[in-house]
Design a protein that fits this description.
The chain is an alpha+beta fold and about 775 residues long. Helix content is about 50%, strand content about 10%.
Length: about 775
């Protein structure tokens, strides 16, 4: 694109105040609490052909009894009776007619064709006990059917309001395993954009909790010995990782890959795609071993061979999308190939720029802490997909610095695990080797970004560059070309997605659901707006950030270093990346590396402060125009330890309970178990409180007009009635003691709030822009 072409295409401040729209996708963790004799997961394992064959062959002496003993131990020794990602089951007679009609529709093989017949796997969801029909579903679908059942029996909302509410049912969808709940409405306010986006996120989480409790009570799960919990938890559950080591990959997929009942017309086809994701990533993870040998990190053949089934798809993240009405309207109205080409050209450049700023958010606002014991410090285990994501030079540097950070040194010598578990356990205990703590392990454990090749750059601004790269990576055994493109920051195009914008996919988990969501949304918005300013001023072109795998890896190492908690990184003295040179010029503590004389040693904290200074210098007008100076002050305080980071706030309760200063002083398994308990309990309760606060704030602003309320319901017509119901319900929702009548009233109040948002700008329906 020529400079004139750039100026003609982008006019009137793209991504400026009043131009942006926003939405959020939230991947949530679920568990079913109950005994092994009542919960679906252990029952399904014991009734599986694999378990029966294992039992039979062990009895016949064909197999060593060890594997059966370990699987039985998994089933019998569950100290919390917590079964993550289990299905839930309930009696058919508890569903009302509307819920049954939704279920019948969702069980069609093609929902767009009423004559297509039922799915071929329908028997998977039905069983009979004592002559009575039961349904069994993943919790992701349990949420939707609970919502449908509420709509079917509601007698508070009027019919027009119910009709709008029905359109929200498909907002309850699923990721590969987890529930995925998508924004109920698009946020596009001129004032307080990020805070309004944060409030929607908080209210949607609270609404999910209400539907969970409603389903438990209405479908009488306690009669079956089940209790469902839904909460934010970014990492694969420990017990699920253990189970993955004990069963074949086919059974793992049967247990945990979602059947995709909601959100897609052809659910079985989508399920096959999910299975392909699991097969492809499991194979890709195995192929990292060859790269680690080539790079010299694995020096012999004594390795821990990864399982043929990988659990990375059960990591849960938060995706924030921000779109531009200006660019969307421009591309839609023009309907010419020129604007499609231009949209791709600029979007790719924005992504390259924003990747330099992402480390500001990691640890400070988004975290997924994880304790790694010494025995697991094998490079083939801890480096995850990094060999596919970084250049050989950077992976060597990062691994060396990571091992230096670990607590695995005694008598002046650094120890490394050998391979046989009994040897590693012995060394760990004798020398008190503690391993490490990683602030945001999800970004290491999951394949978050495909790396360009010399022949196929990912972000050079040309159409179809992603397809070309995926094809090449498919041939290399790194990725399957049928999968969607994995990247930290994804462009959204008008032709493919219906809007122009960007989706941040690197968020793991927030501590304060309101404040953290607000600040990261402000930062993502600022990053995009600043990127466009630099582009349109001619300060940065594609040539200033070359589409070279090494240059790409050089900037991304900063993201992974922040995730791991590595204090220093290395940037080539003569790097071709002009932007990173400009940022580093603001650093105060750089020096030429003694170990790598061709590189500059950069402290990560120094780099983060340099990014802040760069943003303030280059985007001073944006800070005022977007009205987000408070966010810059907040991120500065978090980077410099004046305010506690999300990572610190997450681990602090566990440290205090053990009266220690550092996670490394707590046994790794114990720390990780207690962190999972923290997500299920304390953090879930805090997020519920965040939801009630956001609901009260919104209700107080817009629901104090009785005439307006009567538009949605004649039975809820007084603000004082609404306020009292909300205030009196918080503690009862937290301890799940709320009665069903009050619960339904509270759900109706929230429904009115969502419907009022959907009716803004005469939309009256769920809008897909920026979601």
């Amino acid at each position: 694109m020529s400079q004139n072409g750039e100026l003609k295409f982008f006019v009137n401040n793209p991504f400026g105040k009043g131009d942006v729209t926003g939405g959020i996708e939230t991947e949530l963790q679920t568990c079913v609490i109950g005994s092994r004799d009542n919960v679906d997961l252990p029952l399904h394992i014991r009734n599986s052909s694999y378990y029966k064959n294992l039992h039979k062959r062990t009895k016949n002496g064909e197999y060593s009894p060890k594997k059966l003993q370990e699987l039985d131990k998994f089933l019998n020794e569950n100290r919390d009776n917590t079964w993550e990602n289990s299905y839930v089951y309930f009696k058919d007679r508890y569903l009302n007619n509307f819920a049954k009609s939704v279920l019948d529709h969702d069980l069609l093989s093609d929902k767009s064709d009423p004559l297509s017949g039922k799915r071929s796997d329908i028997e998977k969801f039905i069983f009979y006990k004592n002559g009575e029909k039961y349904w069994r579903f993943p919790v992701s679908y349990f949420l939707k059917i609970s919502f449908a059942n509420y709509i079917g029996e509601d007698n508070i909302l009027n019919q027009p309001s119910k009709n709008i509410l029905k359109k929200l049912l498909d907002r309850f969808s699923n990721d590969n395993t987890s529930p995925e709940v998508i924004s109920f409405y698009v946020v596009s306010e001129t004032e307080n954009f990020a805070d309004n986006l944060a409030k929607e996120n908080c209210k949607r989480f609270l609404f999910t909790q209400l539907l969970t409790i409603y389903g438990i009570k209405k479908f009488k799960l306690e009669e079956e010995g089940e209790r469902v919990m839904v909460y934010h938890s970014p990492l694969t559950p420990l017990r699920q990782k253990r189970l993955n080591e004990l069963i074949p990959d086919s059974l793992y997929r049967e247990l945990f890959i979602s059947p995709c009942l909601s959100g897609w017309d052809r659910g079985e086809e989508k399920k096959r795609y999910m299975e392909l994701c699991h097969l492809s990533l499991s194979r890709s993870y195995l192929n990292t071993i060859g790269k680690l040998k080539d790079v010299g990190i694995i020096k012999n053949n004594l390795i821990i061979l990864p399982n043929t089934s990988n659990t990375c798809l059960t990591n849960n993240g938060i995706h924030i999308s921000i779109g531009s009405k200006l660019i969307t309207d421009k591309v839609k109205s023009s309907n010419t190939r020129f604007y499609t080409i231009a949209e791709k050209h600029y979007s790719d450049l924005v992504i390259k720029i924003v990747e330099h700023f992402i480390p500001l958010i990691i640890q400070n606002y988004s975290a997924s802490p994880y304790r790694i014991p010494f025995r697991d410090l094998h490079p083939e285990k801890i480096l995850g997909f990094l060999p596919h994501e970084l250049d050989f030079t950077h992976i060597r540097m990062l691994y060396r610095r990571w091992m230096k950070k670990c607590f695995n040194k005694r008598f002046g010598k650094r120890f490394y695990p050998f391979g046989p578990l009994w040897i590693d356990n012995t060394i760990e205990k004798i020398f008190n080797l503690k391993g490490d703590t990683v602030p945001d392990f999800r970004l290491i454990d999951y394949f978050v970004a495909l790396m360009s090749t010399d022949n196929s750059p990912a972000f050079d601004g040309t159409l179809n560059n992603h397809a070309k790269l995926k094809k090449e990576l498919h041939e290399m055994g790194v990725f399957d070309e049928k999968l969607s493109f994995y990247t930290l920051f994804r462009g959204r195009s008008v032709n493919e997605n219906g809007y122009n914008g960007f989706e941040g996919r690197f968020y793991s988990c927030f501590y304060d659901l309101r404040e953290d969501t607000k600040h990261v949304s402000n930062l993502q918005w600022l990053f995009i707006a600043l990127a466009y300013k630099l582009i349109l001023s001619g300060s940065i072109t594609h040539q200033e950030i070359p589409d070279d795998p090494f240059v790409e890896s050089e900037r991304r190492q900063l993201v992974f270093a922040a995730a791991i908690g590595i204090p220093t990184v290395y940037i080539k003295k003569d790097t071709k990346n002009i932007l990173i040179r400009s940022i580093i010029s603001h650093c105060k503590n750089t020096r030429i590396s003694k170990r790598y004389p061709e590189y500059i040693r950069v402290e990560l904290k120094d780099y983060l402060n340099a990014v802040i200074n760069f943003i303030i210098k280059e985007g001073k007008d944006l800070l005022e125009g977007l009205d987000i100076k408070d966010t810059i002050d907040d991120v500065t305080d978090r980077v410099n330890g004046i305010k506690k980071s999300t990572y610190i706030r997450m681990i602090e309760p566990i440290l205090e309970s053990h009266n220690v200063k550092y996670p490394i002083d707590i046994d790794a398994d114990l720390f990780n178990r207690e962190l999972e308990s923290f997500y299920r309990n304390e953090l879930r309760i805090k997020h519920i409180k965040d939801g009630f606060k956001a609901l009260l704030d919104d209700i107080s602003l817009k629901m104090n007009d009785s005439n307006r309320l009567s538009k949605y319901s004649e039975k809820i017509s007084q603000f004082s009635q609404i306020y009292h119901t909300i205030k009196s319900s918080e503690n009862k929702v937290i301890d799940e003691s709320i009665d069903l009548t009050t619960l339904k009233e509270l759900i109706s109040i929230m429904a009115i709030d969502f419907i009022s948002e959907l009716e803004k700008d005469h939309r009256g329906e769920v809008c897909s822009i920026a979601i």
